[in-house]
């Protein structure tokens, strides 16, 4: 996480991938990898990382928010809408999820989304 704290996201990717090779059962490592990819604008890779995090921790609403943001930035509105609805089911008080819902329902492809706040460890 030190690379992410320093905003050196290119440098952060490889340690996360190495950690996953050693122990692929940690949703938070996939989540952090997804955040690094998101910061780099690598939306498809970010979405894949968030999907793996969700596979391991399916009740984590923050993971669905990040997945929705990645989909929106990839112009995949229908998938984003499904992800954000699941985020709201899990975290009905999430302001990030409501913001993403508005973006998913808004005219597609007009602008890149701001990144959601980081509420992870």
What does this protein look like?
- The chain is globular and about 40 Å long.
- The N terminus is likely disordered.
- The chain is mostly helical and 121 residues long.
- It has seven helices and no strands.
- The chain has one domain: Serine Threonine Protein Phosphatase 5, Tetratricopeptide repeat (Alpha Horseshoe).
Short account of what is shown:
This protein is mostly helical and 121 residues long. It has helices at 2-5, 9-22, 27-39, 43-56, 61-73, 77-90, 95-105. It is globular and about 40 Å long.
Characteristic key phrases:
121 residues; mainly alpha; Serine Threonine Protein Phosphatase 5, Tetratricopeptide repeat; 7 helices
Helix and strand composition category: mainly alpha
User: What is the top-level CATH class?
Assistant: Mainly Alpha
Mean pLDDT: 83
The value of Rg in angstroms is 14 Å
Supply the number of helical segments: 7
CATH architecture: Alpha Horseshoe
Shape: globular
Distance between the termini: 10 Å
Provide the low-confidence segments as ranges: 1-6
Query: In percent, how helical is the residue content?
Result: 55-70%
Order of helices and strands: HHHHHHH
Question: Mind sketching the topology for me?
Answer:
Elements: H1 2-5, H2 9-22, H3 27-39, H4 43-56, H5 61-73, H6 77-90, H7 95-105
């Amino acid at each position: 996480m030190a690379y992410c704290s320093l905003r050196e996201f290119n440098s952060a990717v490889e340690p996360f991938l190495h950690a996953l090779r050693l122990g692929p059962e940690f949703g938070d490592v996939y989540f952090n990898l997804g955040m690094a990819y998101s910061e780099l604008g690598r939306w498809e890779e970010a979405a894949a990382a968030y999907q793996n995090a969700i596979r391991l921790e399916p009740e984590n609403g923050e993971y669905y928010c990040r997945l929705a943001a990645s989909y929106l930035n990839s112009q995949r509105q229908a998938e984003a809408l499904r992800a954000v609805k699941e985020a709201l089911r899990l975290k009905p008080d999430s302001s990030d999820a409501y913001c993403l819902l508005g973006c998913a329902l808004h005219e597609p492809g007009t602008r890149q989304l701001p990144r959601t706040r980081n509420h992870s460890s």
